[in-house]
């Protein structure tokens, strides 16, 4: 079976193309797509939307009703398309790809920074300055703490990973010793 990201890509690209044409702005669309993804990730919603007793028309009515914010007609049409194609549960992946397209359009990217310890704002800014020089565009940090790293940081920007963690260094040392 094809990977979810491959299946979600055309939907995300079509949604992004529609968002760029809309005068409401990318930020409003991004917020709406994010909210749809959050709703679709709720376990009870997953269960209800995959219930074979519900018709597609019932799903088309039920899902938008679960969203707090008012939805534009374009967004309702998008939900209907996803329901018709049995792709409603792809919303989290579509939202992620939409966010990447938006960032690329704005000349930025999301940087997932995992650190063994809590980083101060000053440390994050210092790290971002170096990373932005390396990658050549503005980065939006998403910082998490991962104690398993032991020390150092792991930075993921798109499909590139910079891993300076102690855990990665120990793994490289283990591989070197095993190869000898």
UniProtKB/TrEMBL annotation:
Where along the sequence do coiled-coil regions lie?
none
Query: What Pfam families does the record tag this protein with?
Result: OSCP
Under the heading InterPro entries, the entry gives:
ATP_synth_OSCP/delta_N_sf, ATPase_OSCP/dsu
Q: Where can this protein be found?
A: Cell membrane; Membrane
UniProt keyword annotations, A-Z = ATP synthesis, Cell membrane, CF(1), Hydrogen ion transport, Ion transport, Membrane, Transport
Q: Which domain of life is it from?
A: Bacteria
What's its membrane topology?
Answer: Peripheral membrane protein
**Family membership:** Belongs to the ATPase delta chain family.
Physiological role: F(1)F(0) ATP synthase produces ATP from ADP in the presence of a proton or sodium gradient. F-type ATPases consist of two structural domains, F(1) containing the extramembraneous catalytic core and F(0) containing the membrane proton channel, linked together by a central stalk and a peripheral stalk. During catalysis, ATP synthesis in the catalytic domain of F(1) is coupled via a rotary mechanism of the central stalk subunits to proton translocation.
The protein, known as: ATP synthase subunit delta
Name the gene: atpH
